[in-house]
């Protein structure tokens, strides 16, 4: 592809896990990728050996983040073809012990940041007839006592995916979501879970995943890449589980 044909992709939460795998998968498909995250060092690791990946340090919850992130794509490449809303944080706790600041942080990151980024990206995505990919979770499609705020925020992002798909279809913009199940990422460490707690969670997840293994970030990146491919031009509004069969078990 020449420079004009190469797609330009923004991936948030690209410093580790699913975001890192997705940024590298797009780069491997000859797309120019802006890898967005809060910390510079992990983004540098994501980009190492991948000259098509450009790190962009930004906290997606900052007021100026949407304009800075979308502006970085337009300033550097003059276009935007795919926005992957992957950045997310998890947290738990029963309703009786609600930590309101923590709940706000989850909703700001997992729900409001994708809304604001999508809003900032609508115009360039319309120009390119591009794609928004929201990374949600199968947790959002079932009861999840103890992590109800996390599940609710992700369920809302599923709903936004369907609504935006209909709203933006006349503008040529597709909107899809990928809903991972149990994936081998550092999210448990980021939650502050101890090694024993993480091991217990993994045992439970394995017991409830029919395919009998924990997913890999590359499994989710594959789905994101396929759904955003021009070959999927007639697919919009879908929320695709990537969970080893956990949702239907």
Automatic annotation (TrEMBL):
Class of the enzyme per the UniProt entry, highest EC level: oxidoreductase
Keyword Heme found: no
SUPFAM superfamilies documented for this protein: NAD(P)-binding Rossmann-fold domains (SSF51735)
EC number, UniProt record: 1.-.-.-
Domain Ketoreductase: 7-186
Molecular function as annotated in GO: oxidoreductase activity
Keyword DNA repair included in the entry's annotation: no
Domain of life according to the entry: Bacteria
Keywords, comma-separated and alphabetical: Oxidoreductase
Name of the featured protein: SDR family oxidoreductase
């Amino acid at each position: 592809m020449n420079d004009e044909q190469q797609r330009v992709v923004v991936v948030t939460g690209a410093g580790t896990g699913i975001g890192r795998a997705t940024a590298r998968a797009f780069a491997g498909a000859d797309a120019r990728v802006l890898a967005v995250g809060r910390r510079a060092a992990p983004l540098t690791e994501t980009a190492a050996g991948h000259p098509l990946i450009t790190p962009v340090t930004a906290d997606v919850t900052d007021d100026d983040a949407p304009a800075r992130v979308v502006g970085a794509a337009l300033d550097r490449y003059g276009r935007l073809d795919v926005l992957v809303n992957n950045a997310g944080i998890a947290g738990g706790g029963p309703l009786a012990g609600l930590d309101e600041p923590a709940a706000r942080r989850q909703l700001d990151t997992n729900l409001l940041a994708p809304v604001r980024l999508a809003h900032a990206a609508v115009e360039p995505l319309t120009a390119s007839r591009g794609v928004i990919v929201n990374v949600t979770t199968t947790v959002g499609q079932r009861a999840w006592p103890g992590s109800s705020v996390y599940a609710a925020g992700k369920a809302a992002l599923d709903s936004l995916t369907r609504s935006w798909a209909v709203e933006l279809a006349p503008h040529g913009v597709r909107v899809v979501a990928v809903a991972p199940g149990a994936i081998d990422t550092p999210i448990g460490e980021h939650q502050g879970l101890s090694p024993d707690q993480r091991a217990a969670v993994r045992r439970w997840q394995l017991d409830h995943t029919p395919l009998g293994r924990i997913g890999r970030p590359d499994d989710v990146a594959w789905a994101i890449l396929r759904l955003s491919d021009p070959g999927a031009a007639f697919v919009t509004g879908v929320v695709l589980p990537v969970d080893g069969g956990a949702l239907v078990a």
